[in-house]
Amino acid sequence: MPPFLSYGRQQIDDDDVAAVAACLRSDWLTTGPQIDAFEAELAQRLSVPHVIVCSSGTSALHLACLAAGLGPGTVAIVPSLTFVATANAVRFAGAEVVFSDVDPLSGLMRAQDLENAIARQRDAYPDLPLIAALPVHMNGQTADMDALRDVANNAGIRLIEDACHALGAEHEIAVEGASREWRPVGSCQAGWAACFSFHPVKSITTGEGGAVVLRDDAAAARIRRLRNHGLEPAGQEDARLPEGLGPNGDYPGAYGMSEIGFNYRITDIQCALGRSQLAKLDGFVARRRALAAHYDTALPRLGDLVSRINWDARCRPAYHLYPVQIGPDAGLARGAIMQGLREQGIGTQVHYIPVHRQPYYADRYGVAELPGADAYFDRVISLPIFVDMTLADVDRVVDALGEVLVGAAA
Questions:
Q1: Domains plus CATH for the chain?
Q2: Which residue from 99, 304, 320, 335 could staple onto 165, CB 3.0 to 4.6 Å apart?
Q3: Which among 187, 163, 159 has a CA at the least distance from the CA of 173?
Q4: What is the pLDDT of residues 57-68, one digit of tens each?
């Protein structure tokens, strides 16, 4: 039996191991120089002034929501086709969620989806301010940020990009309201902030980890404070220290807490790995693109049984995932298709069950009519794609999928 192909996995080599080992032998394991260096290198890569790395993509989303002004008595819009963490981060902040629909052929929030969600928000919460929308760059492909920016500007809301799938992707976007240029996802030319994940199946990994990137100086300072329990060290500009501590209260390392925060810190060990991985990001993305191109060439031999999702020419995707849609004449339930592939050593996954149908959200808000999200979910399967795969592995996946589907149709 050939090796099992999971839908995604990390790629770790001797350089990564050496970077982590060197950190373990250093004086710093938690908050030290590797964190500052990782943030600086990622900021340079994304051409953005502020990068705040943290414990996970979920914590990044939560921090961004808080800094954007979300809290009790406010509302944010989230596409239903995403991982639950996108909506959960809004609820962590105490805000309410209104779900938007998505394109049934790409899974991405469109301008009309955002407009429709804004209209439903006004009906559902006429007395609560709408603060933000969180477009999700599904599968490593970007939503149309130019179009979403126009809608957001008209509504007076901020865009927080859930870019957890999309580190290394590029999109063609209007810069300074004029010419369209290719910019990395995370440059925040249209979004107010962007959030990344460094989970093992993402473009690069720190084990677990995430980052908020943005251009807003005041918001970046607040996110750094919230990441570390809400603490402000003495000597920091505008730091508020406790009053009444007497002459011995002013000392190096003194701190004040003016608002409650979280332990969302990441470790130096993780950032040592992240720096080593970031240096290889271009090669990782190039490999994913080569694998995706081979899938594009191989899948048509399955005819109408399988189709590609829509990929926009205005984006150079990072291909975090390679999803396909199973045709209506496949003759097998999706679970049976996935089991048939698993028996041949091929792992698949479904990304994602629409969040508006999850019991927590259905109980809180009812089940909205979002036909695009439902249609995308009903037919999608994510096929294996990761850096260590070969083109022969892609052929093996496509051949096995054909055997399962053709066998069912026979």
A1: 14-278 (3.40.640.10), 281-409 (3.90.1150.10)
A2: 320
A3: 187
A4: 999 999 999 999
> Could you tell me how far CA 35 lies from the centroid of its own chain?
20
Phi and psi at residue 157, in whole multiples of 5°?
Answer: -120, 165
- Give the amino acid at 90: V
Contacts of 82 (CB under 8 A, 6+ apart): 136, 138, 162, 352, 355
Residues 245 and 294: their CA atoms lie apart, in Å, by 67
Burial profile 169-198: b = 16 or more Cβ within 10 angstroms, e = fewer: bbbbbbeeeeeeeebbbbbbbbbbbbbbbb
pLDDT of amino acid 409? 53
pLDDT digits (tens, 9 = 90+) for 64-84: 999 999 999 999 999 999 999
Residues 320-329 have a mean pLDDT of 95
Contact 61, 162 (CB under 8 A): yes
Contact between 175 and 189 under an 8 Å Cβ cutoff? The reply is yes
User: Is 2 exposed, middle or buried, given 0-12, 13-18 or 19+ CB atoms closer than 10 A?
Assistant: exposed
Residue 245, pLDDT score: 79
**Residue 185 in tokens:** 């996802």
pLDDT tens, 293-305? 999 999 999 999 9
pLDDT of residue 177: 64
